[in-house]
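Hi R.,

Here's the chain you asked about this morning:
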Amino acid sequence: MRNVIVLSVLLLLLNVHHVISAPKGVTASLSAKWSRTPYLLETSEFIGEDGNEKFWQFVDTVKELTVYKQGESVRSYYNLIVKKAGQFLTDLQVNLLKFALALRSYSPAVQASQQIASDEPPPEACPAFVSIHGQHSCSTKDIKKLLKAAAGRPKPYLYKKDHTYPGVNKTDVPIVILYAEIGTKKFTSFHKVLSERAGEGTLMYVLRHYVANPKHQKMLLSGYGVELAIKSTEYKAVDDTKVKDSGANAEEDNSDEVQGFVFGTLKKSHPELTEQLVELRRHLLESTNDMLPLKVWEMQDLSVQAAAKIMSVPKFDALKLMRDLSQNFPSKARSLTRVAVKQEMRKEIEENQKRLSESIGVHPGDGELFINGLHIDLDINNPFSILDILRGEARVLEGLHNLGIQGEHQGKLLRLPVNAVDDKYALDIRHPAIMWINDIENDPVYRSWPSGVQELLRATFPGVIRQIRHNLFNLVLFLDPVQEESVELVKLAELFYKHKIPLRIGFVFVVNTKEEIDGFSDAGVGFFRLLNYIADEYDLSQALMSMVSLYNTVEGGETLSVDKISAYLKRKFPKASAERILGVESEYDDKRKDGALFYKKSGLGSLPLALFNGVPLSPDEMDPDELETLILQRIMDTTTTFQRAVFMGQLTEHSNVVDYLMEQANVVTRMNPLILSTDRKYLDFTSKPVVDDWDDTTMFSYYDTRDKTAVMAKRMKYFTNADEDGMSAVTMWIAGDFEKVSGRKLLLSALKRVKASPGVRVGVIDNPSGKPSEDNTVLYRAIWASLLTQKNKAATEFVQKLLREESCQLLQKGTKIKDLLMQGMDRDSFEKKFNTLEVDFIRSQQLFCRDVLKLSPGQQAVISNGRILGPFEEQEEFTVEDFQLLEKITLSGSAEKVKAKVKLMGMKAKQASDLVMKVDALLTAAPKGEVRRDVHFIKDSHSVLRLSPRENEVFYDVVAIVDPLTREAQKMSPLLIVLSQVVNVRLQVFMNCRAKLSEMPLKSFYRFVLESDVNFLANNTVSPGPVARFMELPESPLLTLIMITPESWMVQAVRSPHDLDNIHLQEVNGVVTAEYELEHLLLEGHCFDLSTGQPPRGLQFTLGMSRDPLMYDTIVMANLGYFQLKANPGAWNLKLRKGRSEDIYQILTHDGTDSPADAGDVIAVLNSFHSKIIKVRVQKKAEKMNEDLLSENSESKGIWDSIASVWSTFEKSVTGGGSKKDEGEKEDVLNIFSVASGHLYERFLRIMMVSVLRHTKTPVKFWFLKNYLSPSFKETIAHMAEKYGFQFELVQYKWPRWLHQQTEKQRVIWGYKILFLDVLFPLAVDKIIFVDADQIVRADLKDLRDFDLEGAPYGYTPFCESRREMEGYRFWKSGYWASHLGHRKYHISALYVVDLKKFRKIAAGDRLRGQYQALSQDPNSLSNLDQDLPNNMIHQVAIKSLPQEWLWCETWCDDTSKVSAKTIDLCNNPKTKEPKLTAAARIVPEWVEYDNEIKQLLRHVQDQEDTATQKHTPSPSQQDKVDTRRDEL
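And the predicted structure, written out as tokens:
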């Protein structure tokens, strides 16, 4: 009641001056450049991520779904799609699907297919078509005819993400690509024919999305931020030209509470007072939007006060409040100063911060997000990548959930450190077969060296190898003495030994092992015996010297022979008996077989071989010329590893270094590439099938792969050798045909391993070569019967006996199985079981082998804790040693750790072993991310916001650490709100507040555009899409709008009558609407020259499609070899640009692309909103080795003309008029570059352009930075070009991610003026003149272009010194600048001329960026970035000082010099702070004349447009028809 009275009073007060005005605000939206893609196709892509099998099942389910589109409302059609998808997804995945559809995350994938189709191109009036090796047809009837001659035509190119029908995929059949829209009738008719044929194996069927007539409806995107930053109004820089308002009205967010009044409720209860309530709400907002600056003492506690306020509201509103406070901070700041903070809260925050700083290096004010312990860096991650992380985690979380693991156990298992697959395995070198030539720890030669491992930590000069008396570095050479390559390797070993490199050197000689061979018939054996003799008589080092001198007798190109050895023996040891040393009865033959045996068992590749600390060197590293530097480099690299070990206390004075090295996780006793390969496949055990029957083969065949696997796991029986706790950490399944020798051998080896190793169990799967019958499954049924009926020990012994070849021979001769039974077996139950076993379950096993393990009948495979090894080749042996290695690798991966955790769950041994196998497979199959952190807080009652997850469901563990008044909070709070709507979360948010703030923590309003599901309007149509709305803004401040988008997006404003750089709500009626467009997705890359390892500066790439190969181009920077190209979803071809780039260079290899690494065509497919970064390696052509891309002298006539300026080829159409000259003659053009942002500066820019044109007869081409131009400027520039007869081009460049980002818009624009001059313009542009927008030109700029820069890359005008009264403001005359510049001048950046050839040649751009990177980390440096940077670099990149008359500005130059001024700049005056417009009219008389002339032109253009619009405006009835058309889904 009280509220109603207060309300009435307030309304009465307001009615005194009752004027209803439309609510004011700002809205910004971002649409894609392509049309809206159907939700059904996006859903199919989402499901396709879970595997090809699911994709095609879904396609079959929705074959003709689009017929429902007509009858249903848009909402119910959307729900129908989600329901159909739900048949293949879990509830959690359905929520993620809705989120993906709201984000339009898969739209680029659909659009990429659409673009590939348009490149075919599609036949006329064709709703769907097939392409068969380049020939097209719209009808299923033509398929047969087109297939006939297909083999003679080249095969089409297939992309990694193509959807290939899972038929019998043979390589020699024709490929048919269907371009169609899933769910349409036309698709179904094609699909029926093609899927049947693909099933038979007569063709390969590939499907690509193609919508024949896409509805041209805009698709609004989300996943980006919008900032309204408060601008400084020290210098008034706002245009006074009035703009027409858009007439748009803001939808109010009525649910909000303002000063205790909840307006949503009030409007419902008092509908008759709606207008007055709107006014009251505005009045209250105006009174709370108190923008008066705060005193410093009021700011100190703002961060903690915000946290206190957030913690004081109910849990479920806390995140919304955090979002509100951080995103609208400037207008909430004053109200926060009144919040009281409890002492306990301050104390708890401090304690938690201390702990966080020590444990994970997070400091007060930092913002960090962890999902299931994975660190999510919000600078790199965006909603699209977070969706991917959520999906990846969902597989593991649901897997654990399905395996019955919940609550605390989930987190513990997730955080287990799963050893990443290591491709640097080492072989154990503690083996007696190695002949060590030296021992650094014990040999007298090294006695003078220090022996403490602490010596490793002593500082030395870089590149110095520490000499320490420990065997830290060990080189083992496996050699066949007779091989030619051995000679150089032995000499290299001697070199290391002689120079006292701290390297222990060992040899393994692999020689003939036959007893009857002696040293007179085999040079290798002779060499070995001679070596043993010398080592016995003298010592090993002497033996090494002898080896070298023996090899020195061998001429180049020859090999060691028996004669050479005998001759050497006679010469060096005349008294020795050759017969006794080399003959049959030699006493020096000891251990001859050891080397060959060790080599064979080790499983290493072909000789010669080298191991460094056990790690084998690859064959291409074995070149003796390279090996020396490589070994020294390895010593340096390994030293740092040892230093870390000593520092961490893992390696101490008492450690045996070799033992320490050989106990590392990557050390194995055998090298088997199959086991150690990094490309691993795993079974998925996480399914929960309704039935687990394998006796009914027909039923079994209908299960999907996961269900088949689950049934196998449930029904499997094992030979075990359990640990003392009864559990087995390693479960191996052996699949094979046990009627074959190879199958029996394999199982026998496995059983031997079981016997030797507790904690391993073996299951057996039959995969007969033929159709399973009683005859070809005898052995397997006997094995199975013994597993079912006998005790473990008896079964194991019986099966081992059964597998021996003699038993098999007896069986073949007619002996019965029962005659082979052993003592201690239960004969009756065995015979009963054996005689009654059906073969149906073996048929099911064979199906499992075929469908899941991908084995042909009779093939063999081994599965270890779900990891599939196989199929094995026919001759491939898998020995007991291999099983031992496999067990070690499985245990060290994560099995051991999983077992320890499962043990704590207190289950029965069999279930526990099953669970270890299933969890291990799940965790090791998951992609290896970074380490999961365990983040927890000491206390959490006052400073941690906690939200509990829903019970008995899969949940994500989310921890956020954030200061509520930071940019991170502006972004994180909406993200957390959406996360909690999409998935079940256990959320903890710690208020990581900064104490004692000295300035306002946030100076902007912010919105993060993100929705958890597709929104619908009340009439069941789709809402227009996500939009950033700022409705409660104070009207007094001047705001500038900044779009903060994912890294690889290039956006531009396409529609807004308002000046988005200077938004002043006091002067606006209604809402400022800003419409942006995602103009390009970037393709970024790094390019290196293979021969030099350096980036090829000035190399040009072009990007296009097969029908239009040159759409965009770019130049490679020297910084990181970086390049960027504008693209959009689709398949793109990257080529070297025709001209010098292509003449001198060729592309050798490339990574991250979608074509094979060594393919000449570089194809990159952009099919997601993620960044696409590729690596390209090029090399000069043999005949062009001495040519330089940027050299002046080697240019042949006409090259530049062949690459005439087509930088932004898309903009070709807008350049006013083209070149009129002949091809052979280079055009004389004045190239003028300028940047402008905001309507005022664009007005100045037009005037500058006219002033340039008035004073020159040379043709002019203007280059503008497109990134910040307003839509109105871009619309009118072509009209100006037409009237004044100039050319223009809009250039674009996205600030590279690796270069320090500026957050303030003005500083970003300054950066663009100076940092990218070498890559913004084509190489054809020799010289460019930068002219500030607010300049008026009074002379011919041709003179400036032709001015002699005397070898400097650019020329600037120095600051004027003649106006005496400004002396106190000349900052460059004292302090840092005075000392840095010395006698040089400080130059102004309003006008400069750049010799681009020289600029590129001396790598000026790269130097400027390098210096910028170093200086910009300090927020106080480079206060005038575009000016300070070149002046700071004056010693490295020379500046030619231009004559003073080239730039006159009233602030610094006296009035007398104005007469001779060639250009006049409207510099800001720090003394008078005079607004620009006033100054312009006062200082430059002709300015007003130019201004009026341009205004008249713009009015004329506007009138023409208005007339055209009136002609095309539809009548009201037509308008209604347009509006009511159905939303396309």
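Residues 585 and 1473 are 107 Å apart (CA to CA).

Let me know if you need anything else.
M.
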